[in-house]
Input
Amino acid sequence: MQLTIWTYEGPPHVGAMRIATAMTDMHYLLHAPQGDTYADLLFTMIERRKKRPPVTYTTFQARDLGGDTAQLFMDAARQADEEFQPAAMIVGASCTGELIQDDPGGLSKTLGLEIPVIPVELPSYSKKENWGAAETFYQIVRTLAPYGEEKDRSENAAPTCNILGPTALGFRHRDDVTEIVKLLESLGICVNVVAPLDAETRDILALRHADFNVVLYPEIAGTAAQWLKRTFRQPFTKTVPIGVGATKDFIREVADIAGLDADVLLSKADSRLPWYSRSIDSTYLTGKRVYLFGDATHVIAMARVAEKEMGFKVVGMGTYTREFARDVRDAAKLYDVEALITDDYLEVEDQIQALQPELVLGTQMERHIAKRLGIPCAVISAPVHVQDYPARYSPQMGFEGANVLFDTLVHPLTMGLDEHLLNMFRDDFEFNDAAGPSHLGHAAAGSQKTAEEPAQPELAGAADVQADDVVWLADAEQELKKIPFFVRGKARRNTEKFAADNGLAEISMETLYEAKSHFSR
Amino acid sequence: MTLVREKVRLPEVARCDDRPVLRQRGQHEVFCGLTGIMWLHRKIQDAFFLIVGSRTCAHLMQSAAGVMIFAEPRFGTAIMEERDLAGLADMNDELDSVVDKLLQRRPDIRLLFLVGSCPSEVIKLDLSRAAQRLSLKHNPDVRILNYSGSGIETTFTQGEDACLAALVPTLPPEPDNAPASLLVVGALADVVEDQFARLFDQLGIGPVRFLPARLADDMPSVGSNTIMLLAQPFLTQTLQALEDRGATLLQAPFPLGANGTTAWLRAAADAFGVDADTFDAVTKAPRERASRAVALHHEQLAGKAVFFFPDSQLEIPLARFLLEELGMTASEVGTPYLDKRLMAPELNALPSDVAVSEGQDVDKQLARCRAARPDITVCGLGLANPLEVEGMTTKWSIELVFTPIQGYEQAGDLAELFARPLNRKTRLEV
Output
């Protein structure tokens, strides 16, 4: 039994819903009680989908349990088939459905529907959302793909591929697909099928016609891609094209598989990120300490972008995707950090608090943690929030994705020239953080407040942990206030750590600057 | 019958409305009772709600209410895992250790609810025994109670009913010779509760108590001289439990809108022998304020048809308010559960041609809604956007539960909640 207040992933049947909802003519019959219908709102509210997810819940109640819940399931299946006329149906149970052991898979065999009915068994008490999505997609592919016809391809035909992994409720999947389709086509590669996002059931039958598969999100398409490789000898890509370097690697990998000349293709590489990163305004990004947490794919890719393309320093990273823990651990070694593998956000919070990074790249939960700690943050991974479905085109993948990432990573930070000015004028009587913005007029200006520092509760809270036995002398406290507010927390912490390490009971101005020189890079 | 009781005049029990009710059984698109924790944990400030359930329960809680805004919310889920179900771990030992850990971290908690879920009910995990066992262990610092918010037994607001019903046996007894007191039952926003307390005070009614109280140790006492007014319509089980403790119900419409609030207050005033002049003098100003605030939205809403999908059991009182005070019409008023006794005063005030439905078969109901083409559809979050895409105007029903809407001072806000989606439609030119 695990005490949870907040969870990074939903239950596995939500993963199955993401697959069914992504497809255009699939239906999902879910043996589940009425409360489980909440999951619809993930799609209609967060993703603003225009249709209800194609899911029929049997919504059994306590009074049905003594009776025939299996019959309820059968009736619901026939009714759903009649009402929605899907091309295929997946059937399964949610956590409660699993306990009543009606065996939806077995029952579905006796339904006698004229469409393919695919049982998906998702162990709710050991697995989670991404695993559920992967397993569902795999079962659909495994069941339907063999029915596709074999197709001889002519010698001179352009190479073809499938794009696997994008789902409903995915983090920027919609725009990633557009970007990668564009990229592949510009390389002269035909896209045969994109699945499951916007795929029809018959597209699954056509999967085998492609020469190879592009796996955009290994968490979701990995299992299916492995099976397709074994069964139809289709190779699949292992590079996730997030960032300039990874996109170039992806092009090399694709060229290799498709027998094309990578150098020619790479000459078309076109992203603003490299120049923006080299322009002198970006100097201030140098060595910014960044912490990453999210799903494995995004964390691994973004760590590379952060360190190699933005010039940041990765000070910590981790994932909630236990299935890919090894990959994240390996990636973390590249940056001399140890990966945190957990689904407990309190552990993530502790680590962020301990590391005091200057930028957090995480999920919506890390956004909240960072806000509490007064650290800038950009969201790079699911679990998703309505804000993660921007109206504008905003891919993470490919060269346009790299442009988006540059903006995403830089916007939460104070811009270069601004930071320079803030430092230069930090002692200025009216240009300091305690003074309100000039456009708010003098009433809002906090010149009197300078003496009585406006509380920064999150930073004070962070400091309390160790501040108990170290005393700040007045001159040091005064000097600390002159440090720009967005680095003051780190300065306080570092100084206190320095004092503690050196057995000092008091912090004087001297100690403050000793600490500054000790920690300066 | 005690001496005191004789001083209180109880009204005749209202006749039950005998209109036909459409009863349907099919797919229900509703929340389960766990969702009630969202407002209950804000209301009872030193209570913690521990759901004993699955990852789905935890996911529901964070999805339905954007939980992330609370640094450390006073609710959580003890997620059952494979080893618990397979019997590799003793579920009771596991639960005890989760509770120990929790209470250690949160010494401010005085009342802990173990909340049953679909999976815990299906495997028949005995949470009442667990609550007893744990109560002994943590006595007197923390009282531990249990109720079920499972979707197989409760729909949305019925979770509050189950929670309050669990509290009732623990309420202190009121002596038989105590003076008559008024008990307002059902969670109200603090601001609304304070308004009502002031009005009762001005009317000279008292003592007045509220269930639930804001703190675990302040829960009201109850006895044979307790007179109850229900502030919420979904409290069937709680009412039964209070009646078992000797309390008496005042039947009244619910305090929604100017009329509803007046009738609700009047029920108490009549029972406690407040004279008509005093009643008028006390209620006149806020009543007129409420009517003026509601009237601001009359033009936008009059003549418009509303369709209620079943959700909170507030649908019938809300429809009564919209028809009576805003001149709207109703295509269908759906309620997840119809307690004819509690709803009698409301049904009597609803025109007899208004279609009332109980339960749900969501696809059939959607078909009726599309056919009726109402001007505004009140529905859950899962249905709202798809209906908007079809050109319908919708109001999220959950907002009617989370927003303070009861009483005179909120009557205008309540009307505005219905006017806003229509207002928005008229502004947009894209």
Summary: Chain B touches chain A through 62 residues (CB under 8 Å). The first strand of chain B starts at residue 21 and ends at 25.
